[in-house]
Design brief:
Elements: H1 18-39, E1 43-47, E2 55-62, E3 67-73, E4 77-85, H2 86-90, H3 96-104, E5 109-116, H4 122-125, E6 133-140, H5 141-156, E7 163-164, E8 170-174, H6 184-194, E9 198-202, E10 208-210, E11 215-217
Helix pairs in contact: 1-3
Length: about 220
């Protein structure tokens, strides 16, 4: 019997396409991710190093979903470094599908560098309306400089792939794998540890706190 003559009830249902199966898999992964996020909502607690020999001030900018590190250095005085998924972070594809792909099927990571002059008041950190809060703390100059040089070299290695955003952020492709359990906030926690900070806790989202003498800078008026 031809397919056209076969009763509707006996016809085989069309098999789900690869894209549909992939979408279902991502939805399932999202459910798992949300469950894990609820479990890991305590966040990262940062304890600054003590007995500093030559202190310098560093900053952690909390953007909500991700955070970045600001170190002294570069031609303008301060340098922001951050790391993330290339498609989501650098190309700006931030829909639900792109977010799930970044967490569970990332096609590559990116390193961001942005140079800017020193900021002397709280309002300056929130001028572009993106930051939710800023942590400030002191570390020794030597490990801070070593980390700066390491991150700067890592960024230079990818300059052939550079993508510059209007705010001066320069994104380059990075070889390190990105995923749910190795995202921008986990990378930032590693950077802080390299400068002698004690970092405890765990989180998928950007949720950092700092012990005294570190401080939190909130947007003016909050």
């Amino acid at each position: 019997m031809d397919e056209a003559e076969r009763p509707t009830s006996q016809r085989e249902a069309p098999r789900p396409s690869w894209a549909r199966r992939r979408r279902r898999g991502l939805i399932l992964a999202a459910i798992i991710a949300v469950s894990l996020a609820l479990v890991s909502c305590a966040g990262y607690r940062v304890v600054p190093p003590d007995a500093l020999v030559s202190p310098v001030r560093i900053y952690v900018i909390d953007y909500g979903k991700h955070a970045s590190l600001v170190l002294p250095g570069g031609p303008m005085g301060l340098v922001e470094f951050s790391w993330g998924d290339w498609n989501y972070f650098a190309l700006g594809n931030k829909g639900l599908g792109a977010g799930l792909e970044a967490l569970f099927a990332s096609q590559g990571s990116t390193m961001l560098r942005r140079d800017f002059p020193p900021i002397h008041d709280a309002a300056g950190w929130f001028a572009d309306g993106r930051a939710e809060r800023v942590l400030t703390l002191e570390v020794d100059a030597d490990p801070a400089m070593r980390l700066y040089e390491s991150l700067a070299e890592r960024h230079r290695a990818g300059l052939e792939t550079a993508l510059t955003h209007p705010d001066g952020s320069v994104f380059v492709k990075d070889p390190a794998p990105y995923g749910m359990f190795n995202n921008s906030n986990h990378e930032l926690a590693r950077w802080l540890r390299q400068m002698g900070c004690r970092v405890s806790g765990y989180t998928i989202w950007a949720k950092f706190s700092v012990d005294p003498p570190g401080k939190v800078i909130d947007p003016p008026g909050r």
